[in-house]
Write a structure and sequence with these properties.
With 286 residues, the chain is an alpha/beta fold. Helices cover 43% and strands 14% of the residues. It has 2 domains: 33-127, Leucine Dehydrogenase, chain A, domain 1 (Rossmann fold, 3-Layer(aba) Sandwich), CATH 3.40.50; 143-262, NAD(P)-binding Rossmann-like Domain (Rossmann fold). The chain has 10 helices and 9 strands. A 6-stranded parallel β-sheet has the order 1-9-8-7-5-6. Strands 3-2-4 form a 3-stranded parallel β-sheet, with helices on both faces. Helix 6 (143-154) crosses helix 10 (261-285). The longest helix is centred in the last third of the chain and has 25 residues, at 261-285. The N and C termini lie far apart (57 Å). The structure holds NADP nicotinamide-adenine-dinucleotide phosphate.
Length: 286
């Protein structure tokens, strides 16, 4: 039996980082030392969110980009967060803005996301960015699904004409993932907490995306032989949303957890921050 293909996000993300580093060096030479910079806003004390923000800052440092973290208290109001976003929107030294999800309950996350200037929305969270992406117009896609598409494309996983099932419909993951697959001509089904007959639907999929947030939720015997598995979930102990141990024997390819989708999210964010910086430079010279 042929071993399944491992969609190695860690390795591909390193290659992408090397390419971004070259672009950063070139940008700095052309812009008198100006550095492409990502600002991350962290609201509250969620340890996982703090870790993600730190990892993104470390990635910026690895490629020579600037990073700035704005840490706001757990009790921050929507108006205060908006003020912080406005400051970054106006700051010419900031090229990309990331608001770490989730924010504390009292904040209206949608209003905050939509306050980010479209040209700095490198995490693809604004309604405008989402809509443009959905219409196949130039836009920064949401970072995790963008990273997943880069990974599938790199490994030449056939998408056009294939059945894709996305389990989860969150604004930052499931929904944009489904639209990106649709734009690449997959036939897409989106499943959620009210979906009936979920195992039967997943059994039809050539590509399964687990974006549920529940450990080992998608079972091995739901997987069609030869399917490609994308596991966006990450839970303590390196467990994803798909029961990979049980599913791997049936599949053609899979993203490992960890080392699959996670590093690709960060890689997509770096590429999109770089794109944003270059677009600012082009606008300034046009
Ligand atoms: P989320 O906002 O909690 O959304 C979860 C989705 O799963 C919802 O759409 C929900 O449906 C659906 N769902 C819940 N129970 C279900 C069930 N029984 N059957 C079918 N669908 C069900 O989560 P998220 O932010 O999208 O994240 C999902 C996972 O991805 C998490 O494990 C998270 O840690 C991971 N993640 C990873 C990265 C990365 O960089 N690697 C980035 C983002 C997220 P309803 O809409 O009906 O409630």
């Amino acid at each position: 039996m042929v071993s399944p293909l491992i969609l190695d996000g860690r390795s591909l993300s390193r290659t992408i980082e090397e390419r971004v580093k070259i672009r950063v060096d070139k940008f700095r030479q052309q812009c008198a030392g100006e550095t492409p910079t990502l600002a991350a806003i962290l609201v509250g004390n969620d340890p996982a969110s703090a870790t993600y923000v730190k990892m993104k800052g470390n990635a910026c440092t690895r490629v020579g980009m600037g990073s700035r973290t704005i840490h706001l208290s757990e009790s921050t109001a929507t108006a205060e967060l908006i003020e912080a976003i406005d400051l970054l929107n106006r700051d010419p030294q900031i090229h990309g803005i990331l608001l770490q999800h989730p924010v504390p309950r009292q904040i209206n996350e949608r209003i905050a996301f939509d306050r980010i200037s479209p040209e700095k929305d490198v995490d693809g969270v604004t309604c405008l960015g989402f809509g443009r992406m959905a219409m196949n117009e130039p836009a920064f896609g949401s970072a995790t699904p963008s990273g997943i598409i880069r990974l599938l494309t790199h490994y030449q996983i056939p998408i056009e004409g294939r059945r894709a099932v996305v389990v989860g419909r969150s604004p930052i993951l499931g929904k944009p993932m489904a639209l990106m697959l649709l734009n690449l001509n997959a036939t897409v089904t989106i499943c959620h907490s009210r979906t009936a007959d979920l195992p039967e639907i997943v059994r039809e999929a050539d590509i399964v995306v687990g974006a549920v947030g529940k450990p080992k939720f998608i079972k091995g015997d739901w997987i069609k032989p030869g399917a490609t598995l994308v596991d966006a979930g990450y839970h303590p102990g390196g467990i994803g949303d798909i029961d990979l141990e049980a599913a791997i024997p049936h599949c053609f390819a899979y993203t490992p957890v960890p080392g699959g989708v996670g590093p690709m999210t960060i890689a997509a964010l770096l590429v999109q921050t770089m794109d944003a910086a270059e677009q600012t430079q082009e606008t300034a010279h046009s």
